Amino acid sequence: MNDNGGQGGSSVPDEEWERFLRESVDGTPDAPREPSARARVVARRLRESPGQPEAWRSYTPARPRRKKIWYAVFVGVLVVFALLAVAVAPDRVTGWFGGDGENGGPLAAESERPTAAPPRDTALRPTPEDPFKGSPAARWAKGTAGITLPPARATGWMNTAQVEQALDRTRDFLAASSLDPAVLRGEHPGRAIALINPRQRDVQNFLSTAFRSPDERNDPLMLFSRYDDKRVRPVGNDIRTRGRISYAEAKDGALRVTTDVTYVYPFVPAEGGDEVARTIVRREVVLDWNDPAKVMTEPGTFSLVSYSVDITNGGCGTATGRLSPEFGAGRPPGAADGPEVDPYDRSTLMADRMRNADDKKCGTATRS
Q: Are both 2 and 48 inside the same structural domain?
């Protein structure tokens, strides 16, 4: 070291030299960094439990008639109670008046997390003509209409118009990955993958492995819906959805978008038959629309932050990368030894549901 504090005869001070070496490895502070997705949550698959039929319309003996004055007061109290209930919890009130999609109208869009599971009506069984009968999905919207977009506002590095475009493209990704008929049949989801940042090496490695040789750690069902066309075929093209998209500012001014959507797919056996089995898939995908000055990205693409999935009646056992629902006749007795879960209960956070899951066991869905 010389008198100037340099290294090997250099006049560069020690602290500058150390900074140079550190940045040679880590990159310069102002250079865009390479994004990486968080650890993936392994998919949990539950076998459908048909449950016991319940009376749909049962006989109730007539009560003794009361005085008209008392009756008027009683009706008035009920009206006041109903108005208060509608104001406080409209989603739950609409469920009181029929959950089969015929007596109850379509549900309002989901603008926030519900406080309880939807009401049950297990006595109504699905048919090829009405594959959502007896399911809360009978009142859900079709396709992307069931995915609520929030109003756009300037956030982070994006102005209002850019945020609106990012939200639209996020919903495009959900449609291309979980609703596209060709992708459902097993074709490569090229349109969806084109929206994912190609600079995310860990994600690109995951995608390559998942489609080449799927396993529990690299399962395409984490992000894409695909069914086993040798075993099942869809009932029409009607896929019911319910969920929402939200956003906030994240690190380096990125627009962080969170999607939480439940998809309901009705299937019948490929070899024929009219028994309908529904597969329910709930996915939470968190992604960043990054500032290219801060993060290595390509225009028009997002970086995946995390993604998780909860699958009901999609197959239980070795990961095949395909949804493979079981029907009543082919469901092994006693195969479900895990916890009971209501796949339509969107009041539970995905993180809590995943935390309570046991991926080594086949759980039991309380309804389909």
A: no
Q: What is the pLDDT of residue 318?
A: 84
Map tokens 């597969």 to a residue: 279
How far apart, in whole angstroms, are the C-alpha atoms of residue 224 and residue 176? Answer: 9
CB-based contact 256:228 (threshold 8 Å):
no
Asked if residue 108 belongs to a domain, the reply is: no
> Which residue type occupies 338?
G
Alpha-carbon torsion, ordered 72, 74, 75, 81, to 10 deg: 150
Residue 308 and residue 350 in contact, taking contact as beta carbons nearer than 8 Å: yes
Backbone angles phi, psi at 155, to 5 degrees: -145, 130
Of the candidates 126, 139, 142, the one whose C-alpha atom is nearest the C-alpha of residue 99 is 139
Each residue of 82-112: pLDDT tens digit?
A: 555 545 454 444 444 333 344 568 899 999 9
Count how many residues are written for the chain.
Answer: 368
DSSP 3-state of 99? coil
Q: How many domains does the chain have?
A: 2
Residue found by looking up tokens 């992708």 in the block: 183
Using CA atoms, how far apart are residues 173 and 203, in angstroms rounded to an integer?
Answer: 15
Domain that holds residue 165: 44-53+142-365
Same domain, 306 and 170: yes
- Looking at residue 10, the DSSP 8-state letter turns out to be -
Cross-strand partners of 364: 47, 340
**HEC letters along 29-74:** CCCCECCCCCCCCCCEEEEECCCCCCCCCCCCCCCCCCCHHHHHHH
What is the per-residue DSSP string for 263-324? EEEEEEETT-----EEEEEEEEEEEEE--TTTB---TT-BEEEEEEEEEESS--SS--SSB-
Burial class (CB in 10 A: 0-12, 13-18, 19+), 363: buried
pLDDT in tens, 256-315: 999 999 999 999 999 988 999 999 999 999 999 999 999 999 999 999 999 999 999 998
Comparing CA positions, the residue from 278, 266, 269, 265 lying closest to residue 330 is 269
